[in-house]
Amino acid sequence: MKKLVPFAVDVVLVVVFCMLGRNSHGESVLAGLGRTFWPFGTGLLLGWVIAVAVASGREGASAAKRFDARAAWPTGVIIWVSTLVGGMLLRGVSGQGTAFSFILVATGFLGLFLVGWRAALRFIR
């Protein structure tokens, strides 16, 4: 159960990112949240899969032993980049906008959200 907490934190933060974006454009926050969330949620899930695969590939150790979901590097960075790139690609192919300014804002917010809490946790420890 403890290992799922970082994943849940990431999901909540991506939902908050999507809600903030919808609100900033004067859109109904809850009505279209699923449409806004699914590309980034899919990218997030893919990032987690990649992060676990990277951890399991190091030194032949099993993923369960090597994977640290709370590490800013490489876990947080992998999850951030995958969420961003996957989200933008899926938004593009589904006809949702990917304006350059949106990519810049998403890069900053997702980086702050997905890597930031991990870095803060390490700093506190």
Automatic annotation (TrEMBL):
Pfam families: DUF3054. The keyword Transmembrane helix applies. InterPro entries: DUF3054 (IPR021414). Keywords: Membrane, Transmembrane, Transmembrane helix. The chain crosses the membrane at residues 36-55, 76-93, 99-121. This is DUF3054 domain-containing protein.
